[in-house]
Specification:
Elements: E1 7-16, H1 20-38, E2 41-48, E3 52-61, H2 64-71, H3 84-87, E4 96-99
Antiparallel strand pairs: 1-3, 1-4, 2-3
Length: 108
């Protein structure tokens, strides 16, 4: 039986619309692979607005210890990718950590 996800770690950042495809490709190649190797699961979301694009990455973890091992410190600290300063409108200063209370998915 698979280990259930008990914690969601949520990161959000925004870029200019003209850099959105560049940033998406960058996150897919540099940000997501380490999470795929370590987290129980990962999702990447993209929200295009008129002048900016928001990206949200949610990774799923069994506990705080697993997140701390991955981040090599506090899981609430933001760990920026090498090109984030160049591509993002500002560097996010916050990570959200949520306990998962209900985990149901409709499979149709």
């Amino acid at each position: 039986m698979a280990t259930p996800a008990r914690i969601a770690r949520i990161w959000r950042g925004r870029t200019r619309r003209d850099l959105a495809y560049t940033y998406e490709a960058y996150v897919r190649s540099e940000g997501i692979p380490p999470l795929r190797k370590t987290a129980l699961g990962v999702q990447l979301f993209r929200e295009d607005r008129e002048h900016e694009t928001w990206f949200t990455t949610i990774s799923y973890w069994p506990d705080f210890e697993a997140m701390s091992a991955f981040t090599r410190g506090s899981p609430t600290q933001v760990h920026h990718l090498a090109r984030d300063e160049e591509l993002l409108m500002e560097l996010p200063q916050r990570i959200q950590i949520h306990r998962i209370l209900i985990d149901e998915q409709a499979l149709r």
